[in-house]
Specification:
The chain is mainly α. The protein has one domain: MFS general substrate transporter like domains (Growth Hormone, Chain: A, Up-down Bundle). The chain has 21 helices and no strands. The two termini are 22 Å apart. It holds the Pfam family MFS_1. GO terms for molecular function: transmembrane transporter activity. It is found in: Membrane. InterPro entries: MFS, MFS_dom, MFS_trans_sf.
């Protein structure tokens, strides 16, 4: 956009803001038009309807995609001869190929199918693939079932994030993403204890313990698919569990917050503009850097603990506790981010925590200290995953009185449904690249310390710190120029400002 004078730019900004406010019927925050008790009650109803089930679904998704490490420790290594070459890494990695390729196509059809139908297909499909993993007889068939798992899980996580961000104002999102994500962390962590219990079924029905892990967890996933069809809410404009007044209130809040309560039409030009936006790829690399250590923990923590000298049973039990610490840390940093309306500084703090943990696990000799390092790795990595998503997702146009005084409040950084659909899918697809990275750099030949993998994981953390610094500089400059009237509004949305 061309530069304009400060005076004319300020007048144009006021005109733009007044048009936005007038189009919404008032120059005051939209919540003031509704009874606060009505707003609070409706939001609480939505929270209870949405977050527990979605959190449980994502927890099961994480368990089903990363339980290879648990199954390997429970006997799969010998039965399928995964100790030969890089078979375990290949079987773990192959899941991410369809997961990455199908991210954007899946997110583009999400709106047409509706959240309820789309998510049900995903959940039942990967549950069936998970059951199939319990009956494979060689590592080649294991790879086939992992590919099917990746196909059905491909659009699941971006769909969850996309759905949540369409229901809430921007500064209401990160705590909810964190609640949804920390539920998955806790459940995912304790899945190793559940797996330990399931291994006692060894020999029943002619199946080994690791086979029962896949079969029972797959059946549970299919049952959750039925609950998905019955209870998962659709988008606000389609949700049937709200009455007309509640639906109007939710849509009014989102429209006042970021002017995109109703979806804009996807077009080729919009698709390519969103896909080739440098910010999209900056966010995507940040997300890859966050998911890489998270996947490394998911696939290799039980193996690393086992390599410290602990028995297989003790390794399964000890795997759970770093996840509890991660859940607490995840919510704490999310609370800090929403309270301070800052993102980058808290993401950077968690990167540093992760680096400290990697150094402890990789380079100390004491098993206790190495195990303690897993706590820090998990705390740092797990908190960054929802943190990056909230950094990307559109989260609060500044309040009306704040806009008039040109205060720059911290909001998040992508508006419009079409752009968010493309960018979210691209970003989460790069999370799959993080999974490929994690499963290939932690090589069998480097067992039990995996030093090259440790350094690759630290490189991801330093990359994210660099991108956070660059993004913060760019966002601060754009916000300042807009505040001074020297450029148009960020994201072409009057009153919008980037989160820093």
């Amino acid at each position: 956009m061309s530069d304009i004078s400060e005076k004319n730019g300020s007048e144009d900004r006021i005109d733009d803001i007044e048009k936005v406010a007038n189009s919404r019927g008032s120059a005051t925050p939209v919540d003031a038009h509704y009874d606060p008790k009505f707003v609070k009650k409706t939001l609480l109803m939505i929270d209870w309807r949405m977050l527990p089930l979605l959190g449980l679904l994502y927890a099961i998704a994480l368990v089903d995609r990363t339980n290879m490490g648990v199954a390997r420790t429970a006997g799969m290594l010998k039965d399928l001869r995964l100790d030969i070459g890089e078979r375990y890494s290949i079987a773990s990695m192959i899941y991410f190929v369809p997961y990455i390729i199908l991210q954007i196509p899946a997110n583009l059809v999400l709106r047409k199918l509706g959240a309820q139908t789309f998510l049900t297909i995903c959940v039942v499909g990967w549950g069936a693939a998970q059951v199939g993993m319990g009956f494979v007889t060689n590592w080649g068939l294991l790879c086939v079932t992992r590919v099917l798992l990746g196909i059905f899980e491909a659009g699941f996580f971006p769909a969850l994030v996309f759905i949540i961000t369409t229901w809430y104002k921007r500064h209401e999102v990160q705590k909810r993403l964190a609640v949804f994500y920390l539920c998955s962390i806790v459940i995912g962590g304790f899945s190793s204890i559940l797996a330990y219990g399931i291994t006692f079924l060894k020999g029943k029905g002619g199946l080994n313990g690791w086979q029962w892990i896949f079969v029972l967890e797959g059946i549970l996933t299919i049952l959750l698919g039925v609950l998905t069809w019955m209870f998962v809410p659709d988008f606000p404009d389609k949700a049937r569990f709200l009455n007309d007044n509640q639906r109007k209130m939710i849509l009014d809040r989102i429209e006042a917050d970021r002017a995109d309560s109703m979806p804009d039409k996807m077009a080729r030009q919009k698709f390519f503009a969103a896909f080739f936006d440098p910010l999209t790829w900056s966010f995507a690399i940040m997300f890859m850097a966050s998911t890489m250590p998270a996947y490394a923990i998911g696939f290799f923590s039980t193996i690393i603990i086992n390599g410290m000298g602990y028995s297989a049973a003790m390794a399964l039990l000890l795997t759970a506790f770093p996840y509890v610490a991660a859940a607490i840390s995840c919510f704490f940093f999310a609370w800090l981010a929403d309270k301070t309306r800052m993102r980058a500084v808290w993401l950077a703090a968690q990167n540093v925590i992760c680096i400290i943990g990697l150094m402890c696990t990789g380079y100390t000799s004491s098993p206790a200290v190495r195990y303690f390092g897993l706590f820090f790795i998990n705390m740092g990595a797990s908190g960054c995953v929802p943190g990056v998503l909230a950094y990307v997702s559109p989260l609060n146009l500044t309040d009306w009185h704040m806009r008039l005084t040109y205060d720059v409040q911290h909001s998040n950084n992508i508006t419009q449904h079409s752009k968010r659909a493309v960018s979210t899918a691209t970003i989460i697809a790069m999370g799959g690249v993080g999974g490929i990275f994690a499963t290939t750099v932690y090589r069998q030949e480097d067992y039990p310390r995996y030093i090259p993998g440790i350094w690759a994981t630290m490189a991801c953390q330093f990359t994210m710190l660099t991108l956070l610094a660059i993004n913060s500089f760019v966002f601060a400059r754009r916000n300042r120029l807009y505040r001074e009237g020297k450029r148009g509004p960020p994201e072409d949305t009057p009153g919008f400002s980037y989160t820093i």
